[in-house]
Amino acid sequence: MNDIENLIPTFDVEDVRADFPILNRKINGMDLVYLDNAATTQKPRHVIDALTRYYEETNANVHRGVHTLSVEATDAYELAREKVAGFINAPRPETVIWTRNTSESLNLVAATWAEEHVAKGDNIVITAMEHHSNIVPWQQLATKKQAELRYIVAGKDGVLELSNISNIIDSNTKIVSMTHVSNVLGTVNPVDELTRRAHQVGAVMLIDAAQSVPHMPVDVQAMDVDFLCFSAHKMLGPTGIGVLYGKYDLLNDMSPFMFGGDMILEVTYEDAKWNDLPYKFEAGTPNIADAIATGAAVDYLNNLGMENIWRHEQELTAYALAQMSALPSLTIIGPKDPTLRGGVISFMHDSIHPHDLGTGLDQLGIAIRTGHHCAMPLVRSYDVVAAARASFYIYNSKHEIDELVNGISETEGYFA
Predict the structure, then answer these.
(1) What topology is assigned to 2-45+305-414 in CATH?
(2) Residue 7 predicted with pLDDT over 50
(3) What pLDDT, on the 0 to 100 scale, is given for residue 2?
(4) What is the CATH number of domain 48-303?
(5) Which residues contact 89 (CB under 8 A, 6 or more apart)?
(6) How many C-beta atoms lie closer than 10 Å to residue 379's C-beta?
(7) CB-based contacts of 162: which residues, under 8 Å, 6+ apart?
(8) What distance in Å separates the CA atoms of residue 16 and residue 400, rounded to the nearest whole number?
């Protein structure tokens, strides 16, 4: 822990903060302390300018014209795909599919690959710490196919229990779908180990990387995962656009998720032939502007360096755990070891409801998340219906964590 706490920052946080216009805001007369990054991140001027520049200079549809604007828009759109592919070390750009968000990416795999491969008597494996978007599609599919939905449970320490994993992921398992980093517990799960186990029994591995790709180096080839998905808005990009990565052969064999323009190669009155990857899964006019802005977000993160970002967040998390643990009124859930978790800390106060605590902190300009965090079964397993959550990113500092701790103490005074 001391090694993490003493890490030398690898970029100047104040320089980074200067790139984010919203961080100049005052909330209730106080400086904004934004600690809700697991929900969405703020946007640097570089990304905002890329979005504005597209609409001011290049606005046109892609793949549908020979005029200059259309060609420029198409080039920028496909360049963004190439940037994302490089960011996660995908072997080729065609394996990167633009979607609306992580939820749609998960649903796409459930409605295509899993729909075609899961049969009666098979099983689907997920963990007990999943976001609703990685629970409900599998519940629905298991019911429809008369398959079994199995859960890898976690202990109260927030770490998955793997002693019985060979009996959970077995010869009847068709797909394992799991979060890389829990959006509630912060747990960094052993996806490499579980991917190897899935492949041993012939199952495919789908990773919800919404809370990992923005924060740490992710290499899909080194991980050998079959599918991986994430959202742009959690990594400095705009809302409304996400990514599904899949191994080429798997994607190529899958049926389309939606039908419409650009996903077809040829249409007659009697039949249709599907387009090649990645367009087979991108029906209709895509989210061109936000794809381009996502490419700009990748540029920004690459400039800082993902290893540097991960070290910065580990340092903040270790400091926050130490400072918050000193408050006897708080119960922190998730791993106590900061090397086992990302920059997400969920906690309960022994006498103040999370919503009241969040409201009190907002009066001090401090933004956190309160509720079940779209992980209702997990939160309820701790015998509560809601929790408060602070989550960190590149522009957060130890000073802001001090503000959070002081704000909790000040809010306690309101309810004394």
Answers:
(1) Aspartate Aminotransferase, domain 1 (3.90.1150)
(2) no
(3) 40
(4) 3.40.640.10
(5) 218, 219, 220, 221, 222
(6) 22
(7) 152, 190, 193, 194
(8) 15
Distance CA(121)–CA(123), nearest Å, equals 7
Q: What is the pTM of this model?
A: 0.95
Q: What is the distance in angstroms between the CA of the first residue and the CA of the last residue of the chain?
A: 34
Residues in contact with 386: Cβ distance below 8 Å, sequence separation at least 6, in sequence order: 353, 354, 355, 370, 371, 372, 379
| Confidence bin at 1 (pLDDT 50/70/90) | very low
Dihedral angle computed from the Cα positions of residues 375, 323, 392 and 352, in that order, rounded to the nearest 10 degrees: 40
Phi, psi (rounded to 5 degrees) for 130:
-80, 150
**Does residue 29 come out as left (phi exceeding 0), alpha (psi in the -120 to 50 range) or beta?**
left
List, by residue range, all CATH 3.40.640.10 domains of the chain. Answer: 48-303
- Alpha-carbon gap, residue 314 to 215, rounded angstroms: 10
List, by residue number, the catalytic residues.
374
pLDDT at 157: 94
Q: Which two tokens stand for residue 388?
A: 């408060």
Alpha helices in 161-283 (DSSP H): 165-168, 191-200, 220-223, 248-253
Q: Is it the case that residue 391 has pLDDT exceeding 60?
A: yes
From-to residues of CATH 3.90.1150.10 in the chain: 2-45+305-414
With left for phi above 0 and alpha for psi between -120 and 50, is residue 159 left, alpha or beta?
Answer: beta
The pLDDT of 75-82, averaged and rounded, is: 98
Residue 356 has pLDDT above 80, yes or no: yes
Query: Two tokens at 59?
Result: 């606005």
